[in-house]
Structure prediction request, 133 residues.
Amino acid sequence: MIELLPESHGAVLGFQFIGEITDEDYREDFMPVLRRTIKNYGLIRLFIDISDIQSEDIGAMDDDVREDSRVLYIEREAIIGDADWEKRLNYVDHFFLFPNTDVRFFPVARRDEAWNWVSEGMQQKPKMRMAFH
Prediction:
């Protein structure tokens, strides 16, 4: 299951990945929110809590993310987890790691610090759309 965290605000999205993550979770709960927020704000930032995830078999989702050019609009990403997850993500080109993104890992005990880092200096208003007539 993937839950959008209530601390999410503006261009900063927080998600908690819980238990076994399915393609359906990914396609219905994660990517649509990501796409909508990128459309509204341009650059976005992510807070990803994987401390309760139990599934590591999300390779099919990985291919979809890499094919989607919109992931290039993720400026920063804070990943919350334990040391074992950090090691695995560092050695494997994986679903949670986006190209050209400043990624930092935080232990669960530093959750507040992660939110502060991922949120600092981020615009809170949608990007302006100019129309010329």
In short: The chain has four helices and five strands. The chain has a mean pLDDT of 77. The radius of gyration is 15 Å. Strands lie at 2-4, 12-19, 44-53, 74-80, 102-106.
